[in-house]
Specification:
The protein is mostly helical. It is 68% helix and 3% strand. The chain folds into two domains: 3-261, Mitochondrial carrier fold; 278-372, no CATH class. The chain has 13 helices and two strands. A two-stranded antiparallel sheet has the order 1-2. A hairpin with a 2-residue loop joins strand 1 (296-302) and strand 2. The longest helix is centred in the N-terminal third of the chain and has 37 residues, at 3-39. It starts with a helix and ends in a 6-residue tail after the last helix. 31% of the residues are buried.
């Protein structure tokens, strides 16, 4: 990973991540306030249920932006360091590490936010001072390990699924996913992760009153007293809520990333013509074209998108195979050969690749089919 790649990763993670975290909290905060107040049945009067819905949003915004930025920074750095952006195992490890780092900021702000939503007559500064005076710094980190126990498994499912759905869709349509498609992938991934980890959340809730209880004993107690269905109590509202939040969160992240981190000067159509240029082909790729009789069209869909089309009946497997070949040949950062900066990578490698095309038969084969390419 070069210094330029590292700088771009840091900028993209911090800016896109922080804006995504702030966006989802700003839009969904009123609903979260009502939910928190309903859970405080004994301490909150129903008459004030829908009043001051945005009270305490300041603490949420202060925490959600930095925590989300820290998560994506840790997540992307781990993935790039491992040099395997499409590996599910790497994504799971990166997600777990990212959650561990992000919760250092998220947990204190979540504690303050929940107290502000219930005690709407108190200022945020008063709530913080009261917490520090009565409980010390540990009061702000109340439930930190319980939060990790809930969030790490959730993220280890959600983010690899998000990456997988985006990769599948981009390969299926032959160009990168749009922000709304990335949002939909995040929504589906979040819903699946929420439904799978619902029993874990229930176990954590039941283990709070008695810290000495072992998880296995908690499971046995729940099954004896409430039955198996109790483990999935609330799965529908939890899945719905997280799916909506995932759509907003990942949609904001994808939108900011695609809007502010695409160097469009590298993709102008006058610099890179929408036709197949000979020096962009490697010997291995040409050999695959000969053996499978696949005609590869390489053209720009729009200035920041590159599209590959394969004219063959069973083109899905061939498309994936050729995509992996191109990725390995040009040492691209991940398996998406049609990601941004792909053309720049190909352009930098063009002279070297042109020297490798020494077999006249292979060159003539490509030239012969040049007229079929648009």
């Amino acid at each position: 990973m070069t210094d330029i790649d590292l700088l771009e990763t840091v900028q993209r993670s911090l800016i896109s991540g922080s804006l995504a975290g702030c966006t989802v909290d700003l839009l969904l905060y009123p609903i979260d306030t009502v939910k928190t107040r309903l859970q405080q049945k004994a301490n909150f009067h129903r008459r004030f249920l829908f009043s001051s819905l945005y009270f305490g949003v300041g603490s949420a915004m202060i925490g959600s932006g930095p925590s989300s930025a820290i998560f994506f920074l840790s997540y992307n750095l781990i993935k790039q360091t491992a040099n395997s952006s499409s590996s599910s195992q790497v994504s799971m490890i990166a997600a777990a590490f990212g959650e561990t780092c992000a919760c250092f900021v998220r947990v204190p702000t979540e504690v303050i936010k929940q107290r502000a939503q219930v005690n709407r007559n108190l200022r945020l500064s008063t709530i913080v001072r009261s917490c520090l005076r009565d409980e010390g710094l540990s009061g702000l980190y109340r439930g930190y390990f319980a939060t990790l126990a809930r969030e790490i498994p959730f993220s280890m499912i959600q983010y690899p699924l998000w990456e997988f759905f985006k990769e599948y869709q981009s390969i299926k349509q032959a160009y990168p996913v749009s922000p709304w498609q990335g949002a939909l992938c995040g929504s589906i991934a979040g819903g699946i992760a929420a439904s799978i980890t619902t029993p874990l959340g229930r176990l954590i809730e039941h283990s709070h009153p008695d810290a000495s209880s072992h998880f296995l004993q908690v499971i046995i107690n729940i099954l004896k007293t409430e039955g198996f269905s109790a483990l999935y109590c609330g799965v529908v509202p939890r899945t719905t809520w997280i799916s909506i939040g995932g759509f907003v969160y990942f949609g904001a992240f994808e939108f900011v990333t695609s809007s502010f981190f695409c160097n469009k000067s590298e993709y102008e159509t006058d610099k890179f013509r929408p036709d197949l240029q000979l020096e962009y082909l490697s010997e291995e790729l040409i050999k695959k074209c000969e053996t499978s009789e696949i005609i590869l069209e390489l053209h720009l869909r729009i200035p920041t998108k590159i599209k590959f089309e394969f004219r063959k009946n069973k083109f899905q497997s061939n498309r994936r195979q050729l995509a992996a070949t191109l990725s390995n040949q040009y040492h691209l950062p991940n398996r998406h050969v049609f990601m941004k900066r792909t053309m720049a990578h190909l352009h930098e490698k063009s002279n070297l690749l042109h020297e490798r095309l020494t077999d006249k038969k292979k060159i003539d084969y490509v030239k012969e089919h040049q007229h079929e390419l648009k």
